[in-house]
Amino acid sequence: MGGDRQLQEADRGEDDHDPEGDDPVVPRSMAVPANQESDGEQHRIGAEGVGQGEGEHPALSIIPQMPEPQPQSVAQVREDLGQVGYLADEKAALVSFLAQRLGKPVLVEGPAGVGKTELAKALSRASGRRLVRLQCYEGLDEAKALYEWNYRKQLLRIQAESSDDGEGSWEATRGDIFGEEFLLTRPLLEAISAEDAVVLLIDEIDKTDQEFEAMLLEVLSDFQISIPELGVIEARTRPIVVLTSNNSRELTEALKRRCLYLWLDYPAVDRELEIVRLHAPELDEGLARRLVEIVHMIRQLDLKKPPSIAESIDWARTLLLIGADDIDRETFESSMSILVKHRSDIDLVAERVSVKLEGDGVPGFTPPGSSRS
Q1: What is the C-alpha separation between 235 and 340, in angstroms, rounded?
Q2: Is the peptide bond before 69 cis (omega within 30 degrees of 0)?
Q3: pLDDT tens-place string over residues 325-343
């Protein structure tokens, strides 16, 4: 790509250009194609010298290219996601389409367990891109998200060349130890420097702090990373970037401006019934509907953690394995731990829901989104 390379000096100043500018599911278990598996290899990053003046350093900038073919319609994206086990609604399909055509990051917010992370995984499978995941947590810093230098290896190199005395020898060693060989790539740099097309998942961004968000702005707006010792590294192929948030804190406006936005909530009864039937097709339709209605009734309670869509699917598979043909009080109480994971929630659900499962039906409950009169 020698002819297409553009060399530029790293700009590490403040961001002067600030552009203005539901129903998910958990996919079924399926084998990931071999060409999507990460082999754990670090993508090599080339660098060339830029000038000889003081303060100048090597840099690399490669013109980003969007992989072909691109989806031609929202309907096509929705169909592609469905083929890999993700039933996207119109909003999710539209945002997924725009993310690929406009090349903009997507911020997906919503309660835990509604399929935000699975959307990124489904986009990876549907588009044939490798998934690169950065799992966020409190205290996550640049060294774990972007890159860090292999200090031990640098020290060994310095010691190996310490026999040569003189300033000239140190200058040569100094330039040598800040090369590609000593750079440890982390998920963000891996995604930007990857030669193949990738989906970058930045999961649970709300667990980090505002300083980390500020660090992300260069990646989200320009798809590049500035390394003081090497310069600017721009994306070889523009990744599809998906950020997820459980909405535990308000994200900064600067981050939101750079992203397309999607809110995912718990699906209506009929949609969740479709999801459960997709992943547990052997389950009787009547039993599946009763299961979903009970799950929705549980979610209306004041719980520490309402059951997720994945847990609805797990409960459906549990009923199949134990051979249940109905959900009576005994069956519910014996399998309730699949849905409810906190002691206080178990007591509340047992008090409010179990007693309603005596006899037929779920008396006095009309779940939202149900088609029954």
Answers
A1: 43
A2: yes
A3: 889 888 998 999 999 999 9
Beta carbons within 10 angstroms of residue 125's beta carbon: 21
Q: Are 140 and 296 in contact (CB under 8 A)?
A: no
- Which amino acid is it at 360? D
Given a contact cutoff of 8 angstroms between Cβ atoms, the answer to whether 246 and 108 are in contact is no
Residue type (1 letter), 262: L
pTM here is 0.72
CA–CA separation, 253 and 207 (whole Å): 16
Residue 228 contacts residue 59 (beta carbons within 8 Å): no
Please give the Cα distance from 189 to 72 (Å, whole number).
Answer: 30
Q: What is the pLDDT of residues 159-203, one digit of tens each?
A: 777 665 555 555 556 657 777 777 778 889 888 888 889 999 999
Burial 283-312 (b: 16+ CB within 10 A, else e): beeebbbbbbbbbbbbbeeebeebbbbbbb
Query: In this structure, how many other beta carbons lie within 10 angstroms of the beta carbon of residue 159?
Result: 9
Burial 205-231, CB ≥16 within 10 A → b, else e: bbbbeeebbebbbbbbbbbbbbbebbb
In the chain, what's the furthest Cα-to-Cα distance? 91
Which stretches within 210-342 are classed as H helix?
210-222, 253-257, 269-279, 285-299, 309-321, 329-335
Cα dist from 203 to 13, 106, 270, 310, whole Å: 27, 12, 28, 17
For residue 221, give every residue at least 6 positions away whose Cβ sits within 8 Å of its Cβ, in sequence order, or none.
15, 17, 19, 258
The model's pLDDT over 215-268, given as tens digits with 9 standing for 90+, comes to 889 888 888 888 877 778 888 888 999 999 999 999 999 999 999 999 999 999
